[in-house]
Amino acid sequence: MHWILGLALTAAVFVILKQWGALSAEKKKTAVWKMALVIGGAVLLFLVLTGRVHVLTAAVAALVPLLRKLPALLKFTPMVNRMYRQQRQSGNDGAGAGGARSGDAGQRTGAEPMSVREACDVLGVSPDCSEDEVIMAHRRLMQKIHPDRGGNDYLAAQVNEAKATLLASRKGAA
User: Fold this and answer.
1) E-strand stretches of 44-99
2) What residue spans define the domains of the chain?
3) Residues 141, 123 contacting (CB under 8 angstroms)
4) Is the domain defined by 75-91+102-173 classed in CATH 3.40.720.10?
5) Distance separating alpha carbons of residues 123 and 153, to the nearest angstrom
6) In whole angstroms, what is the distance from residue 93 CA to residue 100 CA?
7) For 51-93, how does the pLDDT look when each residue is reduced to its tens digit (9 = 90+)?
8) Residue 123: Cβ within 10 Å count
9) Contact 55/48 with Cβ under 8 angstroms?
10) Is the pTM here over 0.90, yes or no?
11) Residues with Cβ within 8 Å of residue 158, at least 6 apart in sequence
């Protein structure tokens, strides 16, 4: 059994070294990171399976590579915080009869309609942007927060309302 594993490991090293020689310097740098993550994941899996590391510790360690994505996710923090505060101020925390349901996801929690400034903040566009910029910003955000992709009904409704508000203001100005 050990000799089969040895042959497989030797073949894998041979294939990796052959492909390594054909890579450019930039691709080698990316490949080193990928190899480090794969090797680290394999070691972590081995330690969990042998009982040397608790599963929760391994889960936390597995999340470490995702920290590279954290700066990209943090740019949405102001929008999420603002929407969460609006929802809490209106007393609409999702519990009981006054809670948000998917049937009324298109309605705002407040009684007043969304202002153009709020709509610009939600979509991340300037107040003097064109209709095409509004549509592209809406598409970009909906690809990230659509409920069918694991997003939130409330955030999707806010983005849809922001698009409708801005497009209506553009038509009213024309």
Assistant:
1) none
2) 2-69, 75-91+102-173
3) yes
4) no
5) 16
6) 7
7) 887 887 878 877 877 777 777 777 777 777 777 777 777 765 4
8) 24
9) yes
10) no
11) 83, 108, 114, 122
